[in-house]
Design brief:
The protein is mainly α. It has helices at residues 2-16, 22-41, 52-64, 69-88, 105-108, 115-123, 130-145, 149-154, 181-194, 214-227, 236-249, 254-261, 266-269, 271-287; strands at residues 164-168, 174-178. It has two domains: 2-108, DNA polymerase, domain 1; 115-286, Intergrase catalytic core (hpI Integrase, Chain A, Orthogonal Bundle). A two-stranded antiparallel ribbon has the order 1-2.
């Protein structure tokens, strides 16, 4: 196993060439050991087999443990120094950490639910009551369309039809977003079974007819995540992240995702490619005539 050999060489490099103090060396080595142990748990036992996606997954794992952004950034600094050393020593051909940006790394690894976790979250909702039916409709809508929580709160009944929703986004920019059948079915049940006697133009409301707010949706997501035994620190925004990531994993064009999310700049949408490069490569191999 080459991990231990090159870790020893890295320690020598830090203490001699970099002339770092013992405390600094210990901090770097601790960060790298955590990374290597994580990789071992994924059955990656060679430095040459490590890909950028593996580092992204590790940083996402750190974020899932509710570590501060500064802690994640510090870990990435250690990782970048380690891989720069490995490249210098010709241990690896490509520095897979080279293009990871320290100040924005926590933006590259938003918390995302797996397909099964989305199902578990939605199935945890008992939609036989007004609150449950409304919550199911809210969550299905956000996951089906990727709209922001604030946009979901502001939706009006007149903004919905069987195939699309009209969304007023940032800067009062209107966009049309397709919506799936499961979300429409959840909305229909909520409106037909529980909204007939509540007079409000807004789609998602409280029992007294007031427009639902972001805090309420945040509290409901936390409630159902706990009920579903989902051990990730999730929020309503997690459903938006999951929407974008799952679309990309299944071959959707990045420009279309940008339009649906309402991103003014494609670079904002581009962060989802860091999560899904492995899936894109698999799609390329499967579908390109000359892979």
């Amino acid at each position: 196993m080459d991990f231990d050999i090159h870790l020893s060489s890295f320690i020598a490099y830090l203490t001699t060439e970099k002339a770092l103090l013992d405390n600094s060396v210990e901090a770097y080595i601790r960060d790298i050991k955590f990374l290597l142990n994580f990789l071992k748990s994924k059955n990656i036992n060679s430095l040459k087999k490590i890909k950028q996606e593996d580092i992204i997954e590790y940083l996402s794992f750190l974020k899932s443990r509710n570590l501060a952004s500064s802690t994640i950034a510090r870990s990435l600094v250690s990782i970048k120094i380690f891989f720069k050393f490995l490249k210098k020593e010709d241990v690896i051909k490509t520095n897979v950490s080279k293009y990871l940006d320290v100040p924005r790394i926590w933006q590259l690894v938003p918390s995302v639910l797996s397909y099964s976790e989305v199902e578990e979250l939605l199935n945890a909702i008992d939609s036989s009551s007004f609150i449950g039916s409304r919550d199911k409709a809210v969550f299905e809508t956000i996951y089906a369309t990727g709209i922001r929580v604030s946009e979901a709160c502001s939706l009006k009944i007149s903004d919905i039809n069987d195939n699309f929703i009209k969304v007023m986004g940032k800067g009062n920019k209107e966009r049309i977003v397709p919506i799936g059948k499961k979300a429409i079915d959840a909305i229909d049940r909520y409106l037909v079974d529980f909204r007939k006697d509540i007079k409000s133009s807004f789609l998602f409301v409280s029992k007294n007819g007031k427009k639902i707010d972001r805090i309420t949706i945040w509290q409901r997501v936390k409630f159902y995540a706990k009920k579903a035994d989902i051990n990730k620190d999730i929020s309503p925004h997690t459903l938006r992240h999951s929407f974008a990531t799952h679309l990309l994993e299944n071959g959707a064009d990045l420009r279309l995702i940008q339009e649906m999310l309402g991103h003014a700049d494609i670079s904002t949408t581009d962060r989802y490619t860091h999560i899904s490069k492995a899936h894109l490569k698999k799609s390329f191999d499967n579908f390109h005539p000359r892979p």
